[in-house]
Amino acid sequence: MSEPATDNREVVDALLALFEIDGVGRQRISGSIHDNYRIQSDDSEFFLKVIDTTEYSEPQLRSQIEFMDHLRREGLPVVETIAGKNGEPLAVSADGAHIGILSRWIEGKTLSKCAEDTPIEQMGELIGRFHVSSARFTPTDPSSIRSWAQVYAPPAGGWLMPFLQRSGFDQQTQTLITECVDLIRFRLLAYPSDRSTWGLLHADFHEENLIDDGSRTWIIDLEDIGWGHFLFDLTWPGILYAKRNGESAEYFKSLIVGYERERPLTQTDRETIPVFHLAAGLGYLEMVDTSPVDNNSPVARKHFDFAINWLRGHLPDAKLDRPVIIRVEQPGDETQIREVTVQAFSASELGHNGEADLIDRLRANCDKFLSLVAVVDDRIVGHILFTPAAIENNTATCHGMGLAPMSVLSDYQQQGVGSRLVEAGLKALREKTCPFVIVLGHAQFYARFGFVPSTEYRVECEFEGVPTEVFRVLMLTPEGQQWKGGIAKYRPEFSEC
Known about the structure:
Shape: elongated
Structural class: alpha+beta
Helix content: 40-55%
Strand content: 15-25%
């Protein structure tokens, strides 16, 4: 994407002198709006970033270093900058045209080269840690730092309209882009912009900006930090990965798994992720537009085409802002619930194993059960069932509920429908003072709602061979929380399934 900048030996020598470093060897390793150098002295190696002050101001760079110091204090793997004369972390050239930032050189491999399969979950964890720490930081001069929100949700008078006017895109493409921007702006009106969702972003997380030195993975290239929603930082690696390797839903799922180990996503976050996939596409267009490459060159047009196809592909999911209604099952819903159950389980790894018939038997045989459906445009797209369960030991029995089965149509998965069903069901059971809920299912998914391994309460599953990590329990009342020990039993229909 970048055209090489001129290797200015005099500028580099002057900046190194301000750091009191005698560079006996140097290697220019990249450059677009700034130049990076690997500097070798007699006994050490350093990383020198030479920044053009027409692109980054001194106050902005000081705020970035202040943020990096904060991240380091909180234990994040960010390399410490080296102070020059008078303890200054910035070296400013005599004419004020360039600023140098020096740190030690990290010898290692980028994360993408550390294994055949890139450790995406590890990157997700680092992004999560970064955001948790960012939420606790306020710079001394907040106004000195750029706003990424003005890139991915451009206001009137921002960069977008001048870009479209000179882009040469046809009317259909321009309409697509403006529709995406309008949708982003509209959906973000309802999305919270407080310190739980908003802070300083790295704004360029990807595998090439993470260096593994054999003992830990370092976060590098922090000069693009700016204000924005954390979800933009989370979706940005996805579009960069797609450009190199083709889009992969599994890549983003792995990123989310790692991210939630450090910063669990809320239901609102999950519902808004498709909007931030569009935001990543807008950010990509702006990145190409502001690069040194001529917008009419074949290289730039190739990148523009990629970003436009990305927007076109993600717009339908982002437009899924039709309300998802969660309600109690009603007479006449049975056929649609069966269809949803069969389709969802047939598409799963385990396949359909009679879950639809099990629901019919439970509905017919249970006096007390809770059956909820998720409805979009009068169509049932998801279903969850809670039926009586018990925990028995030698002295007593505690009666609660078992969650199973739950299903969501394939086209509506990964959009928060299942989470909405679980949350609505648990809310209703709490109101009924149900002591507990047991479930056999994905450990990380159910952990979001407070389910813990049943072993924490010395409770075992009645079914043999069930892995302990997938059999979980949520104690909803003091009665349930005080319970210790026993065998958890579902309705007998489950044994017949």
